[in-house]
Design brief:
The structure is a homodimer of 205-residue chains. By secondary structure, chain A is an alpha/beta fold. Chain A has two domains: 49 residues, RecR Domain 1 (Helicase, Ruva Protein, domain 3, Orthogonal Bundle), CATH 1.10.8.420; 132 residues, Dna Topoisomerase Vi A Subunit, Chain: A, domain 2 (3-Layer(aba) Sandwich). In chain A, 44% of the residues lie in helices and 10% in strands. In chain A, strands 2-1-3-4 form a four-stranded parallel beta sheet. In chain A, helix 1 crosses helix 2. Chain A is globular. The interface between A and B is large, with 61 and 61 residues. Chains A, B: It holds the Pfam family RecR_C. Chains A, B: Belongs to the RecR family. Chains A, B: May play a role in DNA repair. It seems to be involved in an RecBC-independent recombinational process of DNA repair. It may act with RecF and RecO.
Chain lengths: 205, 205
């Protein structure tokens, strides 16, 4: 694309480095900003800069948090014997929205993915092992997405935790509530038969 | 959404003000930036800020340009008697890509849209009328999109130009090259029959 302006070209280049945003979309977004008051662009730039430069993570669960210990880890109401292992803050938000979980989280910050150069050292696995080693944790729940990277990561952590005889579990996979059986994929349907639950507990929630 | 961090919430709020970007997408983009080096966020913020604060427009055609007169207006190779009226720089880039047009452009900066608070005064229509009044322009080509706003804008400009007896034309609407007739909408097909061209000229390009 020939932009007739280096300023415009540079802005489009930078915006199009965001995932899922191509040059055309970037140009559309940037032209939108040009039609808005200058303050909007200034606020946007400042918000991005502030977050990236000043972001802090909870020293216990590694979730994004403005305080040293996040609200969940600091809450006396949460059950500190259960730790749910998730990839990032989106998973924490999703599980919190269910209102069904009262334990703590451990945010890995990603999944093991040699293709993307993410090894176990890039994630907060060591900190999880230390937590289990310290003794208070009774159960670790694996809640990573069931992709190859997710399964690899789960298994790696599972192996690391083996010496400490902590209970491990994985979130249930099955047919979504309200979904028709005929449209479910075979793997999910197979798992939901294998991992069937007592009828009484299927009536809850 | 409960973000557990004001910094994160603020960044997501700002990013989600961009058109077509909801809170979920904004969160995904912002988390991506957190996984990248700080420099990427700094460069992105700076590029947006630089563009918005320092953007300049060609004093003749009003296209975005780093120089007082854009490359197209300044080029001695361009035919200064023909002016093509477009909405924004994307249209200029699209027409330039065809390699079929050697005249100049006039970038309106939008379309008349009372619903969005855009009246003729917000656009560069006065400057176009002045250009025609000055006498060098022989033909004005309307190339706005054929929406209600586009048609309204075309007609408004057409009325403004009427006293100066300049030739006016509109880009041809019809079936796309390579498209099947049976899938074309009726309005387009109707126009392409009404505005049929001599067979010889259909063989070109």
């Amino acid at each position: 694309m020939d932009f007739s302006s280096k300023l415009l070209e540079n802005a489009v280049d930078q915006v199009s480095q965001l995932p899922g945003i191509g040059k055309r979309t970037a140009l559309r977004l940037v032209l939108h900003l040009l039609r808005q008051p200058k303050e909007q662009s200034a606020d946007l730039a400042q918000a991005i800069l502030n977050l990236r430069m000043e972001v802090r993570y909870c020293k216990s669960c590694h979730n994004i948090s403005d305080t040293e210990l996040c609200e969940i880890c600091a809450s006396p109401k949460r059950n500190k014997e259960t730790v749910c292992v998730v990839e990032d803050i989106r998973d924490v938000m999703a599980i919190e929205n269910t209102g069904q979980y009262t334990g703590l989280y451990h945010v890995l910050g990603g999944k093991i993915s040699p293709m993307d150069g993410v090894g176990p050292q890039e994630l907060t696995i060591g900190s999880l092992v230390d937590k289990v080693k310290a003794g208070e944790v009774q159960e670790v729940i694996f809640a990573l997405s069931s992709t190859m990277e997710g399964d690899t990561t789960n298994f790696y952590i599972y192996k690391q935790l083996e010496p400490y005889q902590v209970k491990t579990s994985a979130i249930a996979r099955g047919i979504s509530v309200g979904d028709e059986l005929e449209y479910a994929d075979e793997v999910t349907l197979g798992r939901s038969i294998m991992n069937r639950v007592p009828f009484e507990s299927s009536l809850k929630g």
